[in-house]
Amino acid sequence: MLTLVLGARDLANVRFAFSPLWECVAAFRAWRDPARHALHLPWIAAADRAARGADWAALDAAVHGTDGFFPDFLSPTPTTPLARFMDEVAAVRRTPAAIVRRELAAAYPRGLPRALASAERTPRVLVGRLADQLTHFWQRCLRPVWPRVRARLDAEILGRSRALALGGADALFDGLHPQVAWRARGAGGRLTFRAGERYTRHARGAGLVLIPSVFSWPDVYATAHPPWRPNFAYPVRGLDQLWAVHAPALRGRTALQDDDALAQLVGSGRGQVLRALHVPRTTLELSDALHRSAPAVSEQLTALDRAGVVSRTRVGRSVYYELNARGRRLLQAVSTDAS
Q1: Residue 152 contacts by C-beta under 8 Å, 6 or more apart in sequence?
Q2: CA 164, CA 15: separation in Å to the nearest integer?
Q3: For residues 269-280, b (16+ Cβ closer than 10 Å) or e, as one string?
Q4: Which residues is 185 bridged to in the sheet?
Q5: How many beta carbons lie within 10 A of that of residue 67, not counting itself?
Q6: d(Cα 213, Cα 236) in Å, to the nearest integer?
Q7: Per DSSP, which regions of the chain are E strands?
Q8: DSSP string, 221-259
Q9: Cα distances (Å, whole numbers) of residue 260 to 147, 148, 275, 331
Q10: Going by CATH, does the domain composed of 244-338 fall within 1.25.40.10?
């Protein structure tokens, strides 16, 4: 069980950052273990075709250490909220030899596999090989889908940042992941990761970097050992529709029937849009998820915006829509009446 002790200064220094390099490492692990990452099977099928024929031996061994651990130098804590893959992989290439040896030994306490044995003699050569393989996998399998992944990461940061601003640490960490627990103490608190080794780190002003991730699902990953700044990589919300292209737009209780109370109240089209806005989405994301044209979705969003049940936030060139407090109360009231 890993525990991170945060003081008041650490809570003021909580930051969000997405990491293309972390997504690449997590995606590689998901590709190698499709049974555990079934939510990503549509992407995994495409990755199988794209990655065929390449030599992944060193990277495969590096990211699958004993008991699931792998060295932190493969995904160092982002130093900027808008990291670029090539900058991050360049930082991996600069990893000091002592850190390479130490972290690989920790991941393989009973001895390194053959594919990593050169770390004992020429660690920088091995790191270069790992960086090359990460770059190769990124270019073949991640870069083509990065705009879609990036949009989901932006939406998650938007939602969590708003929670932090409005409700503080309690609201920020609420529902982050079933294995993550937050307990406030005085002006700070303790963030506990209920898995892995028993280790406690006092942040002492280092703060915390939260890394929303698409390919981490269904797990959460923590980096707490120095020299790295503490970070948690956790699955974003709203992944159920990320790879859905031909699947039905909405399932279960979210599928609106003609007799649905919300459909009768606001119309079927607007009701579908409302139910899909449980996480921030752009017009194009909604169009893809609901299998409706972008102009039709835009028209529904305009009507809902005028009705005061959704909010709009611009992130770069994208505009994200999500339910505001009034919209959530509307859905809750309809659901309560329906049950």
Answers
A1: 214, 236, 238, 239, 242
A2: 10
A3: bbbbbbbbbbbb
A4: 188
A5: 9
A6: 6
A7: 2-6, 14-16, 180-185, 188-193, 199-202, 208-213, 221-223, 231-235, 310-315, 318-323
A8: EEE-STTSPPEEEEEPS-GGGTT-SSS-SS-GGGSPPTT
A9: 34, 31, 12, 12
A10: no
SS3 175: coil
CA distance 302 to 19: 33
Q: Where are the domains of the chain?
A: 2-235, 244-338
Which residues, including other chains, have CB under 8 Å from residue 80's CB and lie 6 or more apart? 17
Over residues 97-118, the pLDDT tens digits come to 999 999 999 889 989 999 999 9
Q: Is 185 exposed, middle or buried (0-12, 13-18, 19+ CB in 10 A)?
A: exposed
Distance CA 178, CA 160 (A): 16
Distances from the Cα of 219 to the Cαs of 36, 180, 213, in angstroms? 10, 10, 10
Is residue 202 within 8 A of residue 10, CB to CB? The reply is no
Q: How far apart are the first and last CA of the chain?
A: 40
The total number of residues shown for the chain amounts to: 339
**Cα distance between residue 217 and residue 239, in whole Å:** 9
- pLDDT tens sequence across 48-102: 999 988 999 999 999 988 777 889 999 999 888 888 999 999 999 999 999 999 9
Residue 310's DSSP bridge partners are 323
How many beta carbons lie within 10 A of that of residue 255, not counting itself?
12
How far apart are alpha carbons 302 and 221 in whole angstroms? 39
Which residues lie below 8 Å from residue 32, measured CB to CB, with a gap of 6+?
A: 60, 63, 64
